[in-house]
Amino acid sequence: MAELSEQDIRRLTEEALKQLGAEATPQNVEKVVRQAVHRVETEVPAGTQQVQPIPQPGKGNRIIITAFGKNQIGILAALTGVLAENRCDIIDLSQKVLQEFFTIMLLVDISGCSKDFEAIKEAVVREGEKLDLKVIIQHEEIFNAMHRV
To answer: In this predicted model, what pLDDT tens digit does every residue of 50-67 receive, in sequence order?
Structure first.
């Protein structure tokens, strides 16, 4: 069984915190991280000493953007505007307004983007903060791994 580095565990923990949001209790975070560590450790090919890297954004990949907060005019335009400016392709989008609350989830192809994943993430989060939104952005593989039962 391969050992994960402290940096790998920290990265898994950060992703768990982001994904769990308000439900990020110590027990929930530990459970998600343990599941991810188990997956990473069991996916290492036999005879390999090095742990397989956690999937990272790159060319040809997709990201999941989730945002929520109080509804106001211009949320959709602001978030999708940032993506359009950076040549990101919105593959699918779902939004819901429930009384005064707004939530949106986007599946975005970043393969044609003019910036890398971190720059896109920073720009979208910054735009969301201007509108008092909580924005979570994850690489699709991380999102899928965290939602496997």
So the answer is: 444 444 444 448 999 999
